[in-house]
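step: validate -> pass
step: tokenize input -> pass
step: predict -> running
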Amino acid sequence: MNQLATRTTAYNAADAPVADAYVDAHDGWSVSARYFHSRIHAINQQLRTVQGGALLDIGCGPGVMLRHLAETRPGDFAMTGLDKLRAMVRTAEAQLANTTGTELITGHAEAMPFPDASFDVALAMGVLEYSNVPKVIEEIGRVTRPGGLVLVTMLNPQSPYRLVEWCLYWPAVRLLGRLEGLAGVPAERRHDCARTGIRAWTAHRLQEALRSVGVEPYDLVYYDVTPTVPPLDRVARKVNHRWRDHPESTLRRGRSGVLGTAYLIAARKRP
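step: predict -> pass
step: emit ->
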């Protein structure tokens, strides 16, 4: 087997900066770094119960999670990464250049190019918010083997953080940019906040969707738990570095999980 097998489509150079920025966002002390660090820890906790097998990373992006598993669980998983952007897959190829037994594929989560019951573990991190959720969930149920582990994440639409970010902070930034435009501020210096197209589901709704395709949830973990809201969090997270050494402090279960900016559902495919 080649070190890294790939199946790809046409490359769009315009997407390359997005892939590179996503990799960079995992480092440092930024809001994004804390979020990703907390999510990886939540995934690690769930995977401790799995000795190995065929693992699929749906919406793998530039391969950060696959590289992490290759480094921390070498040889445990036969890994496959799927992403709709060729630029993401190309960056993942570079991230995993020295990894054996990993396949990277360009394709859509709503119509995955895999036979039924192909994987022992299916990860869907940060992809459902930008997809047709029912179709992706149906595909996850199809490609996961009976008894297989399913881990899906979703931004938490009920958290104070997301409510302030989506309903107040982002609209305020866009309004400021428009006012700056009227005042003659050059476009490159104006504040801006791109439309994301995020469609976030509540945990209850997503759990029911999983059950409808024969995948039974057994754990709900909220991660990136924070009492602050934008833009105050940008200062708080740079000052407070405890999350880096103690990522367990960013996870919660139960009612206190409402402060988590996102959540993870762990489930098993029914026999």
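step: describe -> The chain has one domain: 4-162+200-269.
step: cleanup -> pass
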